[in-house]
């Protein structure tokens, strides 16, 4: 595990993904999904889920769909943002990107890596003409919530789930 100073992290390069990064991406993304489960996330890291995110990764990396995948300099963090397809409704948000996820491996958290890869992701989204980004952390993910707030996010909604077979 490498611990860097904030100055070293800010000076470190982040990099955009290339086609041969798919295995690295899927490893980090699997960690993200497993971490979300600890906060009550309902996504399961199954072959189907893995296949879906592999397809989104390939689509962004190959330029088939507008989006970006960014890694931290030490392959310790990942971000995937971009188009989720054409919106079926008009919106006040203009051209909007989906924040599929941002993940920093334990041991590197709290050192500025999320900020570093978010700034790079934002730079690319602006170059692609995106006007807004939508996403958010799960309840209990205080670091994720603080990261969104620091990034300039405004809370616009809450999402609830109902297990239809359960008694109220």
Biggest pleated-sheet summary: 5 strands, mixed
On the 0 to 100 scale, the average pLDDT is: 90
> What's the CATH topology label?
Aminopeptidase
- Strand order across the biggest sheet? 1-2-3-4-5
**SS strand fraction:** 5-15%
H/E element string? HEHHEEEHEH
Structural classification:
alpha+beta
CATH class call? Alpha Beta
Cα gyration radius (Å): 16 Å
- Helix percent reads 25-40%
Stretches with pLDDT under 50, minimum 5 residues:
none
**What is the name of the CATH architecture?**
3-Layer(aba) Sandwich
| CATH H-level homologous superfamily name | Gcn5-related N-acetyltransferase (GNAT)
Calculate the terminal CA-CA distance, rounded to whole Å: 46 Å
As an assembly, this protein is single chain
| Tally of separate domains | 1
Number of strands: 5
Count of helical regions: 5
What characteristic shape results from the CA principal axes? globular
Summarize the model shown.
The chain has helices at residues 6-11, 22-37, 47-61, 113-127, 142-150; strands at residues 15-16, 67-71, 77-82, 96-104, 132-134. The chain is an alpha+beta fold.
Key attributes of the depicted protein:
168 residues; alpha+beta; Aminopeptidase; 15% strand; globular
Structural summary, described in words:
This protein has 168 residues and is of the alpha+beta class. The chain has one domain (12-150): Aminopeptidase (3-Layer(aba) Sandwich), CATH 3.40.630. Helices cover 36% and strands 15% of the residues. Strands 1-2-3-4-5 form a five-stranded mixed beta sheet, sandwiched between helices. Helix 2 packs across helix 3 (47-61). The longest helix is centred in the first third of the chain and has 16 residues, at 22-37.
């Amino acid at each position: 595990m490498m611990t860097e100073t904030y100055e070293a992290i800010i000076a470190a390069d982040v990099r955009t993904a290339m086609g041969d990064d798919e295995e690295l991406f899927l490893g980090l993304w699997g960690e993200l999904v497993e971490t979300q489960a600890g906060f009550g996330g309902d996504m399961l890291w199954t072959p189907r889920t893995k296949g879906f995110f592999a397809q989104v990764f390939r689509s962004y990396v190959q330029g088939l769909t507008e989006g970006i995948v960014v890694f931290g300099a030490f392959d310790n963090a990942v971000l995937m943002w971009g188009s989720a397809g054409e919106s079926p409704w008009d919106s006040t948000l203009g051209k909007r990107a989906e924040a599929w996820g941002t993940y920093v491996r334990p041991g590197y958290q709290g050192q500025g890596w999320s900020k570093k890869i978010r700034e790079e992701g934002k730079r690319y989204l602006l170059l692609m003409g995106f006007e807004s980004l939508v996403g958010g952390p799960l309840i209990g993910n205080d670091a994720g919530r603080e990261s969104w707030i620091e990034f300039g996010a405004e809370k616009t909604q809450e999402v609830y789930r109902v297990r239809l077979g359960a008694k109220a």
